[in-house]
Inverse folding.
């Protein structure tokens, strides 16, 4: 028998999600461990074979965008229909995609990080968390973890827990925050056309046996991107992830192949920086 407290919690989560969605903020339910649910029947319980923790979009061929930050939606029907209709009963929190709402969250994980932010960053809207604060700015950038002790940046390709509206006024994303991503040595990457993929060992035969396999793969990837009518940003990321997972470890990819993928993405309105971010995030997700 369902406890009345559980019903109140579910109603509260759904009410919050629908209110945020109506305001144009893409949302999703989180289960224990801050792990998101897939938002389609095929991907429920990770049956599609996506990444085990569902925190990044997996190698899924579903027609919808149903994993992690990419699952966040403002579509009321998706939010209250299966599988999410039942997911809310197991959800422990509501999350949102800051980048999808045109926002950046500076996640300050402890008191020392908050003290640092008060001297290093311009003031903006703040939201208390369990151990620290979220500072919310208007504008987007790539998400980067550990830019300072106890400080993460969550914007594009990321999600954050919704903890309420907070206090203060949201201000424009300042250069001080953007600079944090640049200062991180591990975050500085060469331009996409200069990114080196793992080279094939000397004398070793490519497992693909023929260049036709690679050419067909790149052509299909270009087609998938150029034919995307919605969720272009997520499609680009998932396509880069698929190409790298198949061709990125055997030394087949060349600068010309990567340039073709970026050209296809930019023809759909993606900026060079978005392409770079998607490529780097895909490599990171694959441990490359």
């Amino acid at each position: 028998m369902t406890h009345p407290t559980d019903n109140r919690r579910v109603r509260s989560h759904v009410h919050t999600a629908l209110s945020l969605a109506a305001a144009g903020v893409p949302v999703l339910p989180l289960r224990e461990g801050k792990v998101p649910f897939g938002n389609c029947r095929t991907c429920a319980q990770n049956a599609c074979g996506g990444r085990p923790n569902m925190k990044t979009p997996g190698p899924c061929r579903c027609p919808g965008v149903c994993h992690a930050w990419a699952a966040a939606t403002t579509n009321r029907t998706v939010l209250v229909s299966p599988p999410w209709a039942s997911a809310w009963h197991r959800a422990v929190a509501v999350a949102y995609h800051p980048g999808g709402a045109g926002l950046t969250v500076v996640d300050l994980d402890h008191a020392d990080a908050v003290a640092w932010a008060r001297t290093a960053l311009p003031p903006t809207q703040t939201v208390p968390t369990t151990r620290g604060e979220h500072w919310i700015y208007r504008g987007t950038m790539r998400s980067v973890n550990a830019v300072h002790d106890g400080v993460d940046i969550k914007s594009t390709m990321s999600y954050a827990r919704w903890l309420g509206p907070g206090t203060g006024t949201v201000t424009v994303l300042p250069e001080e925050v953007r600079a944090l991503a640049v200062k991180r040595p591990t975050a500085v990457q060469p331009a996409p056309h200069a990114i080196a993929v793992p080279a094939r060992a000397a004398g070793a035969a490519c497992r693909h046996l023929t260049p036709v396999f690679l050419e067909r793969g790149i052509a299909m990837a270009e087609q998938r991107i150029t034919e995307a009518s919605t969720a272009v940003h997520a499609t680009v990321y998932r396509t880069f992830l698929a190409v790298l997972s198949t061709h990125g470890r055997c030394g087949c990819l060349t600068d010309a192949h990567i340039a073709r993928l970026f050209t296809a993405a930019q023809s759909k309105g993606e900026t060079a920086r978005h392409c770079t971010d998607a490529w780097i995030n895909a490599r990171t997700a694959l441990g490359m």
